């Protein structure tokens, strides 16, 4: 079974647009869990433009499913993860000013750094995952730094899917096969959606987990607009 972890960054983005606490990210996370989500993912960024460090602390107190914290392991992030002890930490090499994640780790160039950080998290019982491009050498490098899992960065798959899905998924299947051979767990995420997820899961059925946020929250808006508009009309009739 491939587990679904819902990334709630976008719920925080909406909340932050008004300055209050609507929508409430803790309430949304609890509802997602009650609807069957098997995990909650957050990606606090240094500018806290969506998920804030305080959200992470509040979520830790109430979540009953797998909590996955993603981010660039700068000292502040490392302290937050060690304090909140999620089930999983996913290391993403984000520059501070990026709009969203746009690259995986160079696991060869950053080998010593990754080894140190991963050992630190693992010593505290936190499962580790490293965000990587679909490049076999990067998967092999990930195995060498001692991570438990990799997360395949799926933006290129999502972009290629509409043109040529066989070609788009091919490097991911190769990397997943290599990761499996090396004994790594395999997660995937970024721009996965209701349109492209089924084919990806069929081609890599031994995936452990996908984390999905942007498309899932957008799809929830489309699907939720009808009942909510009808509820308002009923109140006004
Ligand atoms: C690592 C990854 O692909 C996701 O965490 C994605 O970057 C979401 O982050 P934003 O919500 O900030 O776009
Ligand atoms: N790790 C990927 C993630 O959490 C969600 O990415 P996206 O669905 O918001 O692109």
TrEMBL record:
Entry keywords, A to Z: Cytoplasm, Pyridoxine biosynthesis, Transferase
Subcellular locations according to the entry: Cytoplasm
CDD domains in UniProt: PNPsynthase
Keyword flag Ubl conjugation: no
Site feature: Transition state stabilizer: 151
Catalytic machinery residues: 43 (proton acceptor), 70 (proton acceptor), 190 (proton donor)
Sequence positions that bind 3-amino-2-oxopropyl phosphate: 7, 18, 191, 213-214
InterPro entries assigned: Aldolase_TIM, PyrdxlP_synth_PdxJ, Pyridoxine-5'_phos_synth
Domain of life: Bacteria
Record pathway: Cofactor biosynthesis; pyridoxine 5'-phosphate biosynthesis; pyridoxine 5'-phosphate from D-erythrose 4-phosphate: step 5/5
A GO molecular-function annotation: pyridoxine 5'-phosphate synthase activity
Pfam families, alphabetized: PdxJ
Catalytic activity line of the entry: 3-amino-2-oxopropyl phosphate + 1-deoxy-D-xylulose 5-phosphate = pyridoxine 5'-phosphate + phosphate + 2 H2O + H(+)
Residues at which 1-deoxy-D-xylulose 5-phosphate binds: 45, 50, 100
Enzyme Commission (EC) number: 2.6.99.2
Protein family per UniProt: Belongs to the PNP synthase family.
Record text on subunit structure and interactions: Homooctamer; tetramer of dimers.
Protein task: Catalyzes the complicated ring closure reaction between the two acyclic compounds 1-deoxy-D-xylulose-5-phosphate (DXP) and 3-amino-2-oxopropyl phosphate (1-amino-acetone-3-phosphate or AAP) to form pyridoxine 5'-phosphate (PNP) and inorganic phosphate.
Protein name as catalogued: Pyridoxine 5'-phosphate synthase
Originating species: Psychroflexus longus
């Amino acid at each position: 079974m491939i587990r679904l972890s819902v990334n709630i960054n976008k719920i925080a983005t909406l909340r932050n647009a008004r300055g209050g606490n609507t929508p409430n990210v803790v309430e949304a996370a609890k509802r997602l869990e009650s609807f069957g989500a098997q995990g909650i993912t957050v990606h606090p960024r240094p500018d806290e433009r969506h998920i804030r460090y305080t959200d992470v602390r509040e979520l830790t107190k109430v979540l009953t499913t797998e909590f996955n914290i993603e981010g660039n392991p700068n000292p502040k992030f490392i302290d937050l993860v060690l304090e909140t002890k999620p089930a999983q930490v996913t290391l993403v090499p984000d520059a501070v000013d990026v709009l969203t994640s746009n690259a995986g780790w160079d696991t060869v160039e950053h080998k010593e750094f990754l080894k140190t950080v991963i050992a630190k998290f693992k010593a505290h019982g936190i499962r580790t995952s490293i965000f990587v491009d679909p490049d076999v050498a990067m998967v092999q490098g990930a195995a060498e730094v001692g991570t438990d899992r990799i997360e395949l960065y799926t933006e290129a798959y999502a972009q290629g899917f509409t043109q040529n899905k066989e070609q788009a998924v091919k490097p991911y299947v190769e990397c997943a096969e290599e990761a499996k051979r090396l004994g790594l767990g395999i997660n995937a995420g970024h721009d996965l959606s209701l349109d492209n997820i089924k084919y990806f899961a069929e081609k890599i059925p031994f995936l452990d987990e996908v984390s999905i946020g942007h498309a899932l929250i957008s799809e929830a808006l489309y699907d939720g607009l009808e009942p909510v508009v009808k509820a308002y009309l009923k109140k006004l009739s």
